[in-house]
Specification:
The protein is mostly beta strands. The chain is 0% helix and 46% strand. The chain has strands at 3-7, 10-12, 18-25, 34-40, 47-52, 59-61, 69-74, 79-84, 93-100, 116-117, 121-125. A hairpin with a 4-residue loop joins β7 and β8 (79-84). The radius of gyration is 13 Å and the shape is globular. The N and C termini lie far apart (40 Å).
Length: 127
């Protein structure tokens, strides 16, 4: 059973940056799992943002964050990251990482495809 723990959220002003981390544990080979990032704002559905393949060679982004967010992973440290630049008020949400029992990011923004989830970290963008 895989466990995921997100960290790095906080309160920032518009235009600032944050880097979220997703620590993965409990699996035998972390590169067997694609990792995705989602967010959910109050009253809204969970939104898929990005995904990185097991090897880290392939990355995918939703149009809403393309060019501002960057996903990466360090399999030696069992950790995936989401760097978020030029944050906007609309980025305020709870951010979750998820893992798929596959190294590929097919349908990366489809939440039911993910097999494991963390409990999330809160990001608030406010002036």
């Amino acid at each position: 059973q895989l466990q995921l723990v997100e960290s790095g959220g906080g309160l920032v002003q518009p235009g600032e940056s944050l880097t979220l981390s997703c620590l993965v544990s409990g699996g035998s080979t972390v590169d067997s799992y694609a990792i995705g990032w989602f967010r959910q704002a109050p009253g809204k559905e969970r939104e898929g943002l990005s995904c990185i393949s097991g090897t880290g060679r392939s990355t995918f982004y939703a149009d809403s964050v393309k060019g501002r967010f960057a996903i990466s992973r360090d399999n030696a440290k069992n950790t995936a990251f989401l760097r978020m630049d030029n944050l906007k008020l609309g980025d305020t949400a709870r951010y979750y990482c998820g893992a798929v029992k596959s190294p590929e990011c097919y349908y990366f923004d489809y939440a039911p495809r993910y097999d494991f989830w963390g409990s999330g970290t809160e990001v608030t963008v406010s002036s």
